[in-house]
Amino acid sequence: xxxxxxxxxxxxxxxxxxxxxxxxxxxxxxxxxxxxxxxxxxxxxxxxxxxxxxxxxxxxxxxxxxxxxxxxxxxxxxxxxxxxxxxxxxxxxxxxxxxxxxxxxxxxxxxxxxxxxxxxxxxxxxxxxxxxxxxxxxxxxxxxxxxxxxxxxxxxxxxxxxxxxxxxxxxxxxxxxxxxxxxxxxxxxxxxxxxxxxxxxxxx
Length: 204
Description:
Number of helices: 8
Distance between the termini: 54 Å
Shape: elongated
Radius of gyration: 19 Å
Order of helices and strands: HHHHHHHH
Oligomer: single chain
Structural class: mainly alpha
Helix content: over 70%
Largest sheet: none
Number of strands: 0
């Protein structure tokens, strides 16, 4: 994949980075851990300007968050609450669970978006609850931009410094992404089991 990403950048330049970062938010198997260090390597060869690379990568990353954000806005809290009350039983999900999650995001959403944009595995997923909770678009863009810029700067700098060994960045970050994914799955499973147990206790 790294070779293909490099070919896209060699062919399209900054436009390629922009496109790849937009797609990365919608298609997680194309991770920024591959794109950004590769862009940093391209800058180290002198074919791209490292500052412009970071700016373009940040713009692409932020633009890529908007589809999921607006999907969340389209559904909204009330629609999800109504759906959970009607169909969520098999997921042990109730309308009040949606409201509780929404209240949490209303309180901690900006921090979640800011730091979440720097966490592999959940970077793009946070756009959905941000939209569902109807976080103001300006607030969402501000925190998403800051988090995305910090993430892009770190990975581009790593690729720039490592040069031809830029692919080592992915080797270090990919295990972290897998651990986070596993923890999320385990957390969801634990929540599911506990909700089932709580429902059984309520009916006895």
